[in-house]
Amino acid sequence: MTFHYGTLAHAAYDHGNRLSTSGLALETLANLLGHDDGEHHLSDTQMHGLACAVHAIGTAVRESGLELCTKAESEVRK
Fold first, then answer.
1. Cα–Cα distance measured from residue 62 to residue 56, given in angstroms and rounded to the nearest whole number
2. What's the pLDDT at 53?
3. Residue 3 to residue 1: CA distance in whole angstroms
């Protein structure tokens, strides 16, 4: 599916893709943290890495949401 660059539809598709990917990443991290009932025996360094990954994903999701809202607001003003 192709959307014209700069349109609300393009932005929604792009951000939807990012959010879906972020969701998959968060599900994987949750499993590493024990959601899958497995013992993963993570080191302190690995736990710190997971915390950094969760922070980075959270930041990306927040920025994606803000950018999509901004795009929608500018579309409504047209």
1. 10
2. 95
3. 7
- pTM of this prediction exceeds 0.70: yes
Identify the band that residue 49 occupies on the pLDDT scale cut at 50, 70 and 90: very high
* Exposed / middle / buried, residue 24 (Cβ in 10 Å: 0-12, 13-18, 19+): exposed
CB 40 within 8 A of CB 32: yes
Structure tokens at 36: 């899958």
Nearest by Cα to 60 from 11, 3, 21: 21
Tens-digit pLDDT profile for residues 5-22: 888 888 899 999 999 999
Instruction: Give counts: helices (H), strands (E), the chain.
Output: 2, 0
